Amino acid sequence: MENEIKDKVVVITGASSGIGETTAITLAAQGAKVVLGARRKERLESLVNRIKQTGGQAVYLVTDIKKRTDLIKLVDLACEVYSRVDVMVNNAGISHLSRIDEVQVEDWEEMIDVNLKGTLYGIAAALPIFKRQGSGHIINILSTSGIKIVPLQGVYAGTKNAVRTIAEALRQESGGLYRVTGISPGFVNTELAEHIKDEATRAAIKEKAATIAITPNAIANAVIFAISQPANVDIGDIVIRPSIQD
Ligand code: NDP
Fold first, then answer.
1. Nearest Cα to 137, choosing from 75, 167, 179, 171?
2. Is pLDDT at 1 greater than 50 in this prediction?
3. Residue of the nearest CA to atom 33 in ligand 1?
4. Is the CB of residue 188 below 6 angstroms from any atom belonging to ligand 1?
């Protein structure tokens, strides 16, 4: 039997733009109750209003995933308003690209803090609730950068692959109590590249994205696919890239 999206409580980090925002809209349109976190309040407020105007259910909390307490408050909000958490989508992420011999240590640290530690904080906030409920689903947004290793993306890819490794251990430890899914997007048309500091790299990535990138809908559909499987089916890894990506 299909595991319906309707009435599932789904917490999504990084919901203020790109993949997180589209995933929130897509899930809410299918009847999920979405609990949205990110740092930009105005974006979240306007997204929640949009979802409500179309009959959906959504709440938000300003959340910085570098702070463990923010993730705890986010899942607490889900429990307060909707009484449970069915799915935790650890989507928030940043991508600083540089050669390793440029030794951009602060950028490395920020990626480790957000992409790795922030995701772990999301997992840590959700697991006690999943244990109490006897069920739950962690979905981590990874990257094809971790599958095909290329220059400039070493540390970024490392943070994503660290999450992949940890999540596989979690899956095996769970003994079927909760499901664990990793979704690895390739080039997706979002704001991610806007934050690349080096101007030439930013321009090159944006040009490539403009030529080949797919829309965030492709990733949102993968989230829906993973959630909607029967409870005894765990979708482990999904890779979604533009057909013409190397
Ligand atoms: P966006 O830049 O559009 O979205 C990133 C989201 O993460 C924003 O909502 C941002 O919100 C949030 N975020 C960043 N830092 C924090 C933080 N400290 N606390 C809370 N939220 C934070 O990019 P995408 O939608 O593309 O990125 C989503 C995920 O997809 C990321 O994990 C990224 O690595 C991954 N990905 C993207 C690819 C692409 O080509 N776009 C390819 C492969 C993977 P705010 O600034 O409001 O906090």
1. 179
2. no
3. 93
4. yes
pLDDT of residue 201: 87
pLDDT in tens, 130-165: 999 999 999 999 999 999 999 999 999 999 999 999
SS3 215: coil
DSSP state of 17: S
pLDDT at 2 over 60: no
91 CB near ligand 1 (under 6 Å): yes
Strands 9-13 and 87-90: parallel
Beta bridge partners of 137: 87, 179
The C-alpha atoms of residue 215 and residue 204 are separated, in whole angstroms, by 19
pLDDT tens-digit series, residues 165-224 = 999 999 999 999 999 999 999 999 999 989 888 898 889 888 988 899 999 999 999 999
Q: Compute, in angstroms, the gap from residue 91 CA to the centroid of ligand 1.
A: 6
156 is catalytic: yes
> Which CATH number does the domain 9-239 belong to among 3.40.50.720, 3.20.20.80, 3.30.56.10, 3.40.50.300?
3.40.50.720
Which of 82, 39, 57, 40 is CA-nearest to residue 48?
57
- Among the ranges given (19-23, 106-110, 130-134, 205-209), the one the predictor scored with the smallest mean pLDDT: 205-209
Using CA positions, which residue lies closest to atom 48 of ligand 1? 39
Q: Measured from the CB, is residue 19 less than 6 Å from ligand 1? A: yes
Residue 153 Cα to ligand 1 middle (Å): 15
Inter-CA distances, 80 with 74, 75, 85, Å = 10, 9, 10
